[in-house]
Prior knowledge:
Strand content: 25-35%
CATH architecture: 3-Layer(aba) Sandwich
Bound molecules: adenosine-5'-triphosphate
Oligomer: single chain
CATH class: Alpha Beta
Organism: Paracoccus broussonetiae
Strand order of the largest sheet: 6-7-8-3-9-10
CATH superfamily: P-loop containing nucleotide triphosphate hydrolases
CATH topology: Rossmann fold
Number of helices: 10
Protein name: ABC transporter ATP-binding protein
Keywords: ATP-binding, Nucleotide-binding, Transport
Shape: globular
Helix content: 25-40%
GO molecular function: ATP binding
Amino acid sequence: MSANVIEVRGLRTQFGDHVVHEALDLDLRRGEILGVVGGSGTGKSVLLRTIVGLIRPAAGTVSVLGQDVRQLSGPAREALERRWGVMFQDGALFSALTVQENVEVPLRAVPGLDDAQRQALAQLKVSMAGLPWSANAKYPADLSGGMKKRAGLARALALDPEIVFLDEPTAGLDPIGADAFDRLIVALRDALNLSVFLVTHDLDTLHACCDRIAVLAEKKVLTTGTMAEMLDVQHPWVHEYFHGPRARAAVADKE
Length: 255
Ligand SMILES: Nc1ncnc2c1ncn2[C@@H]1O[C@H](COP(=O)(O)OP(=O)(O)OP(=O)(O)O)[C@@H](O)[C@H]1O
C-alpha cells in the first residue's frame, strides 16, 4: 500500500489564458495533516477542486487512493468519491434543509440504509463535529459561522471518508472558536485515521495541526516540509510569511 493517498504530478490548470498551476507536484501521505498555504490567488482552492474532480486539469495526473481520478467514470468514480469528504469554505450547506438533513444528503446514496438508520448516522456525525443535539433541527441561516463550519464538517464525515479536504476551516472564526476547531481536526484525524488536505491562511492552525506544510507560489508547490523546515526557506514570500509579525505571534502563543 502506497504511503501517499494523493499524488499530483505535472499538473497544469488554466482558465482561458490564465495559467494557475504549471508542473505542480504534490503528495498527501496517509494519516498526515498537510497544510496548504500561499498568497491570495495562488490557486489553493483550485488545487483542492481539481483533486476532487470539480475542475478538469489541462495537463498532468491526479491519483487519489491509487486511482487516476480522470480515468474513472460512473459507479467506479462514485465509489472513489465516497472515500473522501470535502468541507468547502462557506460550508456549502443547502439552506432549505436542516443540519441533520444536510448531513443525510450523502448518506442517501448508500444502498440498504433505511430512514431511521440514515437519521441516526447523520445525528452521530453532527455530534462528532462538536455540535449540540439541538443543532440537528436548525437551518443554516440560524447557525453562527463556527456552527456552519462544523455542520459542513459533519457532512464531510458522513460517509466515513479516508481523506478529508478542508478549505480554510478557521477563516472568519474568533480565536477561541478557531482554536477549538484546530483541536477537533487533530482529534478526528487521530480517532478516525484520516488523511487531511487543509487549505489555510491561519498560522495558528499550521502550528496546532499540521504535520507538513506545502507552499504554493510561482504556479507550483514551491516547497514542502515541517514548520521547522519552513523557517529555513529563503524564498521571499515564504520567509515573510513564516517570519513576519503574525508568525512570531503564533509561535509565541504556542510557547
Ligand atoms: N472558475 C474560475 N474561472 C476563472 N478563474 C478562476 C476560477 N476559479 C478560480 N479562478 C482563478 O484562479 C486563481 C486561483 O484561485 P483560488 O481561489 O484557487 O486562489 P486561492 O489561493 O484559494 O486564493 P484565496 O487564498 O484568496 O482563497 C485566481 O486568480 C482566480 O481568480
